[in-house]
Each structure stands twice: as C-alpha cells, then as structure tokens.
Amino acid sequence: MYHHNVGGRILAQLDLTSTIQLNNGVAMPRFGLGVWQTDNTTAEASVQAAIRNGYRMIDTAKQYGNEAGVGRGLAAAFADGAVRRQDIFVTSKVANGDQGYRRTLDKFEGTLRRLQLDYLDLYLIHWPVDGQYVETWRALEKLYRDGRVRAIGVSNFDVQRLQVLLRAADVQPAVNQIEFNPLMQEQAMRKFAPAHNITVEGWSPLGGGKALNNPVIALIGQKHGKSVAQVILRYDLQCGIVTIPKTVHEQRMVENARIFDFELDDQDVAAIAGLDQNQHALWYDAFGWYGSDTDFGMATQKWPDSTPDYDA
Length: 312
Hints:
two-stranded antiparallel ribbon; single chain; TIM Barrel
C-alpha cells in the first residue's frame, strides 16, 4: 500500500510489509536488507535471517561478488515455505564492466543463474559509465519489455546524467539508488527525481557509521527511547526514501526494523535536515566514478567462496 508523505511525515502506520508504488505500478517495499561487502556464505545466512524476521526486500549487485550466496539464501527460504517468490522483492545491478547493449543482455543471464531466479523485481545500472549508460539502458528496456524484470532503474546517477538518460529513454527509470544519510542528503536529486516520478532509494543510510556518533541525533533518540540508527532509518522513511541498511548480525536486523512504532516530529525532522554537509561517507569522491570496471573500487569483489564461473 502506498502511504502519502505530507510535510515530510508519513501519515499512515508503516511496517516491514509497507510498499511504495513505482511509476509503472509495481509495489516496492520501503525497507530492506543491503548486502554490500558481504561474502557468499555470510550473504546466504543474512538473507535467511532477514526473511525470517519479516524483511521482504533484498538488494545485491554483481559487483558485490555475492549474488550466488544471496541466491542460496533465497532458495532456502522458498524451499522451507517461509515465503513465496512473489513475496520477496529482489534487486541486482549491471556491473560497470558489463555495460553496453549486447554485453548487458548476455551478462544478465549469469545474474539470474546465480540468484536462482526466473526474473528480477528491479534491475539497476550500478554506475553511469560515460559513453555506455544509454546503450545499457536500451538493454534494460528490452529486459523489461520481455518480462525478465518487473522494473528498471539506475544507481548513483547525478541530475545531469539522469537528464541525458531521460531524453534518450523509451521507458522511464523507476528508481535512482543513491547515497543518502544525515551527512549526505542529496537535495538536488530529491527535488529532481519526484518531479519526474522517480523513486529515490538510499544506500549507506547510516553514513558508513559516521552519523552514528552525532550528538543531535543521539538527543532525538533519547527523546523517543530509540537508538541513533533507528532515528536515522525512521528519518529516511519520513523523507520518502526507500532504505536498505546493511548488517550481517541478526539482532541488528531486528533492531533496525523497529522503526514503525514511533514518529519524528517536525522539530526532529528539521534538526536532522540541518546536519546535511553534502559530504559523501565513503570512497565516492576518491576516483573517477564514471569510468570503467578497472577504476578504483569498481572491480567485482572477489571472495574466497566465489563461484568459479562468476564472470560468466
């Protein structure tokens, strides 16, 4: 069910089953689990733990090197009857080195095989590789028209590149997944995306841990009897941001999801909004992020338990 956001506040009671309607009518959960920097074995266990505790959205990417582990976790959850395939919203992303029309289509098959799925709920261009992302988008449009994916979108696109894509696109992107946390609140994109009916999804909602030490948020947490992390994740929801906190600890998954029994007031929201430093939490600005798969930080992560045919 879509919950209207008025004045920065969610008016309806939310829970882990709450969804937002994308621009093509697909219902996307507002809250899910991210699995970046997680090896296959850990990802498998994390996915099962998340589903066991009510999570209904899992976000991965080929670059993360753990699609196979996520696939095993999903398969186990489906096999034991905990959930059905249609109950879980699964996202993956085109790796930089896989961009281009034909290569994107070819490499998509490997993603489905590793995830042990017949389709994806959402497929994103992971980064806007200059000179390639428009052709990559045409491949995503084909996958969408062929029913291989239920929705398509982008990740880490700035306003300029999203404008270029919108001019070239036949199918409008449904989602832009970007860094969003108290220190990096992406004001320009948060104005641009809704104006074009594009849902904003936030990665690194806890700011790589930096925001967890903020005294302003700590005071708000004390006021509501909540942790700093819970306040931040609640803020995301009240800003209309789909959020995917990453953790491999089951107890923390449970705690992260305990954000539906309180609401930040206008003063709380304004205080957190005032923390924006337009400052990326991680390595985002440290390399030419519109480059190729060989650029710093962009090579597919290899874990000891990677599948031998990972790049197939």
